[in-house]
């Protein structure tokens, strides 16, 4: 299903990684409120330094996803007589009409649709440091699940401006070639599935600056281009199709349609991260991020994390982020008075592409068990103004060797 697990997890769990060779294993549990999606993510990470010039990292993952995803469904018992009118609707539009017609428009409801999947993933990166200690990194990654496959490559270069290393510039890019198993147009009483291609490319440029021994900042500008099948075939919308051609839409002329999005997406934004050491025990990390794309989505995120060293072996890391988003120009809230779309055109009822504000609360901890062993833990809660909410927690251990 290609569930995207919270990115904040990885940054916090890896936050205490040292330059020493190490191996770590982490488990993350993610759950949406309302008996929706549940996911478990298991990650094995390794890092090996060869002298002072080379670093090799590898990561292996095994994820499980279960639960239910909300989608429009018909509640009137199905009948074989519905096959023909559904086919008639499909013949009148280039959009995908889904099986599951209801002759009464008011009887469509958002209900949980069960899902279950597993994902296997692997990635590796190699970093080389030249005589000026500039860094050159390249890597590859692969993941596979029942209905989604992904393969990619990335590269990044980091240059210091002088021997003091107080300022650096970086440039990086990545490409992903994915395939998703998507529903096709209604035919012969149902929707067959076929593999569709997705290509994602991204690039970022950044600058880091040490202002004082206690203040450090990173500025990054990023952009991306995505093309191919970008719709979510697990989600449905309601489409009005004038099958009898009388110029009006009757109560029996509303059909389940496939979530439909443009076949390309251009996006970009900026990210500003700062690190300020108040003293030897407290470090604050405020952050601002801006995002925009050609679908009409625009967002701002502001917040930060704090590292509080309680003892030589215990560090806490509380965090908070506030987020606001302007939705895509082809989004209609499924709770709207009229949630239907026209027979043609882009259409989504995915609340992740709508207008909302959100809050994220995090609390992490790092425990030094010995000179070789460390344990990390994280708990987080996320809520949107549209009623969506989720939580996740993670725990893991790292061994330096």
List keywords for this structure.
401 residues, 16-stranded antiparallel beta barrel, 3-stranded mixed β-sheet, 2 helices, 19 strands
Please characterize this protein's 3D structure.
The protein is mainly β. Helices cover 4% and strands 62% of the residues. It is built from two helices and 19 strands. The protein has helices spanning 7-13, 82-91, and strands at 22-32, 38-50, 54-74, 108-129, 135-145, 148-160, 167-187, 190-212, 215-228, 236-240, 254-258, 264-277, 282-293, 298-309, 314-326, 340-341, 356-368, 373-384, 389-400. The protein has a 16-stranded antiparallel β-barrel. A three-stranded mixed β-sheet has the order 11-10-16, with no helix packed on it. A hairpin with a 6-residue loop joins strand 6 and strand 7 (167-187). Residues 7-18 have low confidence and may be disordered.
Shape, please?
A: elongated
Can you count the beta strands? Answer: 19
How far apart are the first and last residues' alpha carbons, in Å? 37 Å
> Would you tell me the structural class of the helices and strands?
mainly beta
| Order of neighbouring strands in the sheet with most strands | 1-2-3-4-5-6-7-8-9-12-13-14-15-17-18-19
Topology, element by element:
Elements: H1 7-13, E1 22-32, E2 38-50, E3 54-74, H2 82-91, E4 108-129, E5 135-145, E6 148-160, E7 167-187, E8 190-212, E9 215-228, E10 236-240, E11 254-258, E12 264-277, E13 282-293, E14 298-309, E15 314-326, E16 340-341, E17 356-368, E18 373-384, E19 389-400
Parallel strand pairs: 10-16
Antiparallel strand pairs: 1-2, 1-19, 2-3, 3-4, 4-5, 5-6, 6-7, 7-8, 8-9, 9-12, 10-11, 12-13, 13-14, 14-15, 15-17, 17-18, 18-19
